[in-house]
Amino acid sequence: MQLYSVDQQRSQALEAHAASFAQFKVFGNDNPSVLISFASKTLNASQIILKLHVIELDAQSGLHILASHTCLLCFYSMAAWVLHKRVL
């Protein structure tokens, strides 16, 4: 996936499979922040690692800045999900 900044006239490649933009008003800031969230999938030692990343794009100096966050995503395979539902 490729992210392009009109203001900075440059692009950046992201290793991502899905992305979304959002505006979020941080307490103490006058204007809302622009956030991007995207999911990535990597292979490490034959294990699939899924992560969700949330990054503030327009951080302004002197204001409250959101820290970038990354968390692991866990998905059941469909077979495991069906088996889990039958047990309940």
Key structural traits:
single chain, 88 residues, globular, two-stranded antiparallel ribbon
What is the strand and helix layout of this fold?
Blueprint: E1 2-5, E2 10-13, E3 18-24, E4 33-44, E5 47-56, E6 69-73, H1 78-87
Antiparallel strand pairs: 1-2, 3-4, 4-5, 5-6
Structure, briefly:
This protein has one helix and six strands, in the order ββββββα. The chain has 88 residues and is mainly beta.
Parts with pLDDT < 50 across at least 5 consecutive residues: none
The chain-level mean pLDDT equals 79
Work out the helicity level.
10-25%
General shape:
globular
Instruction: Give the tally of structural domains.
Output: 1
Number of helices: 1
Radius of gyration: 18 Å
Largest sheet geometry: 4 strands, antiparallel
How many angstroms does the end-to-end distance come to? 39 Å
Total number of beta strands: 6
Strand content of the residues, in percent? over 45%
Q: What strand order characterises the main sheet?
A: 3-4-5-6
Report the structural category: mainly beta
- Give, in order, the helices and strands: EEEEEEH
Model description:
It is a single chain. The protein has 88 residues and is mostly beta strands. 11% of the residues lie in helices and 48% in strands. The chain has one helix at 78-87, and strands at 2-5, 10-13, 18-24, 33-44, 47-56, 69-73. The protein starts with a strand and ends with a helix. The chain is built from one helix and six strands; from the N terminus they run ββββββα. It has a four-stranded antiparallel beta sheet with strand order 3-4-5-6, with no helix packed on it. The mean pLDDT is 79. The protein has one domain (2-87). The longest helix has 10 residues, at 78-87.
